[in-house]
Write a structure and sequence with these properties.
5-stranded antiparallel β-sheet, 5 strands
């Protein structure tokens, strides 16, 4: 890789990190190409990204970003997972690491806060942003449905009473 390619790689990684809320650093010693491809597909499906990195280039790309604190984690065969959603990348990587022992979580950075492997696993156990939005919409809709039911009930009762009187009058006549 010549100097211009290295500079382009660093610039591309820095631009990806500008819109990122979470960066997870992993070791992937022994993962096959098929396993890495499978992991990338799962990460992409969650709206995140996964990139095998050269340590020196990754450290240079982290300079000047909120993730500079991760600098010391880049030793050995590293890859990073990143996402805007503070849970998505952590959730996918942690789930994959449970089923494949070749992938190890080293640490992460949630904004400027550095997390260890246990912190990443704890973060992965939280519901994603989309799940929280769904729950919130469900909670908002439930009271509205109840209100509509309560408002409709008296009108329905009045209609049943009037129908009963009308039926009674028809029978009497």
């Amino acid at each position: 890789m010549d100097r211009t390619q290295k500079e382009a790689t660093i610039a591309a990684l820095q631009s990806k990190l500008q819109d990122t809320g979470l960066v997870v650093v992993t070791h992937h010693l022994g993962l096959t190409v098929k396993e890495v491809t499978d992991l990338r597909a799962k990460v992409r499906a969650a709206g995140a990204g996964f990139k095998v990195t050269k340590n020196r280039l990754a450290r240079r790309a982290l300079q000047g970003t909120q993730f500079e604190g991760l600098d010391g984690l880049f030793k050995g065969p590293t890859a990073i997972a990143f996402s805007k959603d503070p849970v998505a990348a952590a959730k996918v990587v942690a789930d994959y690491a449970k089923t494949n022992e070749k992938l190890k979580i080293v640490g992460a950075s949630l904004g400027t806060q550095i997390l260890d492997a246990e912190g990443v696993k704890a973060l992965a156990s939280l519901p994603s942003l989309d799940e929280l939005r769904g729950r919130l919409v469900g909670m908002i809709q439930t009271p509205a449905t109840r209100i509509a039911g309560v408002l409709q009930a008296p009108g329905g009762q009045v209609a049943r009473v009037l129908a009963a009187y009308a039926k009674k009058d028809d029978e009497a006549a």
